[in-house]
C-alpha cells in the first residue's frame, strides 16, 4: 500500500505541474515579473526552492510563499475567465471532429472499392453475355 501512496503523490505532483504550466501559458503575462520568474524557474527549469532562494538571496520560505501566491493568482484567473477550460473543450471537440473525418474518409474509400468491384463484375458479365 505504501507504494500506491508514493505513486499517488507522484501522480498528483505531475498533475499539479501540468495544471500550473497550462495556467501559466494562458495567464503568465498577468503575474508580476518576480512571480513569473519563480514559476519559470521552479516549474520549467526544475530548480528547487533552495536553488531559487540562493539566486535571489531570499529564504526558501520566501520562494515558497511567492510560488503559492502566483499559483493562487493563476487559479483565480481561470475561475474568473475560464480560458483553459474553454480551450480544453474546444480541443476535445476538434479531436472528435478529426476522428469523424477519418471515419468518413474510410467509408468513402470502402464505397470507392465497392464501386470498382461492381464495375469489374459488370465488365465480366458483359464479356459473358
TrEMBL record:
NCBIfam families found in the cross-reference section: YlxM
Superkingdom, natural source: Bacteria
Function: Might take part in the signal recognition particle (SRP) pathway. This is inferred from the conservation of its genetic proximity to ftsY/ffh. May be a regulatory protein.
Pfam families: UPF0122
Keywords, in A-Z order: Coiled coil
Coiled coil ranges: 60-128
Protein name: UPF0122 protein H0A61_02236
Family matches, as InterPro entries: RNA_pol_sigma_r3/r4-like (IPR013324), UPF0122 (IPR007394), UPF0122_fam_protein (IPR054831), WH-like_DNA-bd_sf (IPR036388)
UniProt keyword Coiled coil present: yes
Membrane-spanning parts: none
UniProt source species: Koleobacter methoxysyntrophicus
Assigned protein family: Belongs to the UPF0122 family.
